[in-house]
Amino acid sequence: MKYKYTKYVPNLLDDLDLDELMSKLSDLLMSSGFGNPRDTGDDSDRTMQALHDAILEALFNGGVLPDDTLERMFGDQAEGSEQQMRDQLEQLIQQIIERMKESGYITAPPNLDPEKARRAQGGGPGEGEPGEVKFEVTDKALDFLGYRALRDLLGSSGHSSTGRHDTRDLSTGIETSGAPKPYEFGDVMNIDATATILNAVQRASEAAQANVEAGPESCPDGAPAVHTSGIDIDYSDLMVAQGEYQSSCATVLMLDCSHSMILYGEDRFTPAKRVAMALSHLIRTQYPGDTLHAVLFHDSAEEIPLRELGRVRVGPYYTNTREGLRVARRILERQRKDMRQIIMITDGKPSALTQADGSIYKNPFGLDPFVIGETLSEVSACAKAGIMINTFMLARDYDLVAFVRRVAQMCRGKAYFTTPYTLGEYVLMDYMDKKTKTIH
Q: Tens digits of per-residue pLDDT, 329-340?
């Protein structure tokens, strides 16, 4: 048998960390329209060319490939002509795109270029320049980006794991951390065997001692009864272990998708979406007893499925804070949890209002007294329903700060004045911090 030997050509895909690449592409995959803020309907960032350019940037400046690999393949010591290196790089990018498709991170329409070319030669329909090929981000990719966002945010704050919401109360649960207590009807049957047997032994000993002191005439056979084997356990002997009572929480995340979230040279909406996806992943994996709903507020407000958070984009909208609070309150009033809260992420003052006839009243100039008054009335309704509002403000206008602080005071909530870069740490730490939980 003859063997043919050829020169080994390394495959760069072997050195590629696809998970790390996906993290580097998160801004593109969760794009909110920041690239063209004047045209929020522009989806040019969903083209295969945009994906190609983003991958190219990540390869050379994102640390996805080791530096020695880049130097070996494309540096001064690389073999081949410049054109060959370009062809090799183009081939690598196409392989990465195919790998992303195979992994279920993106989908793309079928390649119809051959059919278009055939029809063009025949003079039939389909003549002209082909349109730009677009891709779609899958639910699997968005779920993975939520997981990575959660890991990065918790890692940056020094936390490696999370539990459930702790309170100062005790309950008869599975995890024991408190002193045992006598069993009462309705308690979880988490029997403390040591304390129960000790009660039974003490009771039997006290009974035997009482018989001895009473004399032989107290026993029917003329001698004290002595148990030689076994322990009789009575109902009154039962002791149950106590654990820390862990509360449940219903949360509505209110996300401002008005136009100002991508204006003024700063993308505030994509970091907000990343935080929302991280919070969703946190609750699903670490707090299974909790619930999370998402509400978008703009000219109006509506609830959206959590799986659609990564696909949401801003629009040419005003900020109807009152309508967002109203939708959130109606959702939370249906929940039977120990704590109900609204997490509101916004960067602007209330500037719109839904009137009784369904029309939208808009005033973008200053804090309109009519709009503010109606918004505070809804805040008061939330407070009466026992709903706490925590506001994360991405702006620092003087009048806006005063408004946000008043909201916090009315509903026993908190006001955080933060930036898109620290928003995630504030939201997640506030959610997990037991100081924000109801003590009952």
A: 999 999 888 889
